[in-house]
Amino acid sequence: xxKRCGSGAGYTMSAVIIxxxxxxxxxxxxxxxxxxELKAGGVVPCLAVILxxxxxxxxxxxxxxxxxxxxxxxNDRSVQLPENTSEAELLSLIGELxxxxxxxxxxxxxxxxxHIDERKILFxxxxxxxxxxxxxxxxxxxxxxxxxxxxxxxxxxxxLLKSMHIETSxxxxxxxxxxxxxxxxxxxxxxxxxxxxxxxxxHTGTKDLKSITKDADIVVSAAGMPHxxxxxxxxxxxAVIDVGVNRIPDASKKSGFRLTGxxxxxxxxxxxxxxxxxxxxxxxxxxxxxxxxxxxAAERTxxx
Length: 304
Ligand code: GUN
What we know:
Order of helices and strands: EHEHEEHEHHHEHEHEEEEHEH
Largest sheet: 6 strands, parallel
Helix content: 25-40%
Number of helices: 10
Oligomer: single chain
Bound molecules: guanine
């Protein structure tokens, strides 16, 4: 058997392309069955996705989340608010949803318009309904290794690595990008005992990024910038996970743009052992993990 990850010199094959869509579909199927069981017991999992404004990328993410809810048989209490919604109005809506026992999860799509303090909003969501895992109580639990809803994209990446049997224990993992949504929680997750990786978190202040990525068995790019990871930055046989979803103007497309990741896919796949495509890699896993967090939030209410 070929040892694919981190195999070093002599590696000649093109990378295995990780099919996030397929893995996510399998997870969503299992979630739909668990949802049906919960519904038979009288609890219908319910998520409220709140979108403020009309950002095209956010609209498309929210549409995908709502489609997944419907496919799983969950209730959807989503709300779209105008761009000029005040912080007080948004806080008031979150308060109502916190008090509503039929709502199990609340997600405020980010980014928010500049006049709204993102932290105030995220802190206002009840930690029990925080299906993003962004509330400081849940982030604190992640840091100390207590059970808590995990941030969806980082969790999806770990599930994807495990589904491909990519060894994380003892692996050198480099995460590029220090966002609160992906980079920071992913670095924490990968360094926990159950992943056991040695993690380096790189960011815009990192000097000589290539010298760091070149040593890594696992490279995750969540920088939001095309060409962040080029072939000469990747060790032969490394696993490369691309979180970037960048819109590039493309007149040949009906939409006027095409999506591209942070990684130079065509060149890097000739060096790596595993690689995620964009689209169809990490994105579908984020949604599957959101459905899982919503289901588990609903299941917890039955345990109380
Ligand atoms: N915007 C981009 N990714 C996310 C996410 O995972 N959660 C929320 N709430 N907003 C996002």
